[in-house]
Amino acid sequence: MQSILELRHLKTLHALREAGNLLRAAVLLNVTQSALSHQIKLLEEHHGVSLFERKTTPIRFTPAGERLLQLADLVLPQVANSERDLARLAQGVAGQLRIAVECHTCFDWLMPAMDLFRQRWPEVELDIVSGFQADPVGLLYGHRADIAIVSEMDAGETVSYHPLFRFEIIALIARDHALASRDYLVAKDFASDTLITYPVPDDMLDVVRQVLKPAGIEPAARRTTELTVAMLQLVASKRGIATLPVWAAQNYVNRDYVLAKRITAEGLTGKLYAACLPELSDKAYLNDFVSTIRESSYLKLQSIELL
């Protein structure tokens, strides 16, 4: 029997297992859901077996699907390791990646991605530039950082931008807040309350830049804290309204510690990019680091979309 089995089939089944459904697997592989379905259908028709049970959540693989997943678990890591070895031979031994962030909550997804990357590139020295950075791109120019995690692309900067993901930002209020019955908050709802944020400039706060400033709204008062847990304690005590990415607040919301509200009817979203100097942009380990961030974040975080 002539085999039609290719690496892409193994990658598809692996992504399907990790993502949990066809739509998320297609996003992870950067293909359309219909293309992924067609690929699986051809494989099933060729071998005369189903690979997974339809309409099951989470997805359940048949014995045939499990057998191919065993093959995927054996082959895909070896292929990935070989590709990294070829990159090492072509580009030399990798150096270091010093990461600067302008996002207080980025560590929630950055640390797991760094742990995974270390397994793939143990010779690359990973480090986080100490402290919150108001101008992480400036650290690139000064050669004090190799990657900057930023929320906007600036066409005036001579750096390369690698898109990461888009995420939803929610408002957090006390459970007995006057706005508790509202489906979502709008700009004027912040005018009579205290806005609780991290101590960063307003142009780095999405709720100010995208919602309040365009509406000409100023909160009644401002309060800042470095700690997310302190921010949520203030919210629970009815000291004001905070805004955070869904991933940073979800545990508190799930425990009914605070209430989550969408910001505007359409929802408020932020974006993240990895910036680096152009001479680093084509390095295999840099691109693998970006891919690792995208993949691990998409699989672990709620309410994000890959850019």
From TrEMBL:
Annotated localization: Cytoplasm
Gene3D superfamilies, sorted: Periplasmic binding protein-like II, Winged helix-like DNA-binding domain superfamily/Winged helix DNA-binding domain
GO terms classed as biological process: methionine biosynthetic process
Matching InterPro entries: LysR_HTH_N, LysR_subst-bd, MetR_PBP2, WH-like_DNA-bd_sf, WH_DNA-bd_sf
GO molecular function terms attached to this record: DNA binding; DNA-binding transcription factor activity
Keywords, comma-separated and alphabetical: Amino-acid biosynthesis, Cytoplasm, DNA-binding, Methionine biosynthesis, Transcription, Transcription regulation
Signal sequence, start to end: none
Domain HTH lysR-type: 5-62
One GO cellular component term noted in the UniProt record for this chain: cytoplasm
Similarity annotation: Belongs to the LysR transcriptional regulatory family.
Protein name: HTH-type transcriptional regulator MetR
Protein species of origin: Undibacterium piscinae
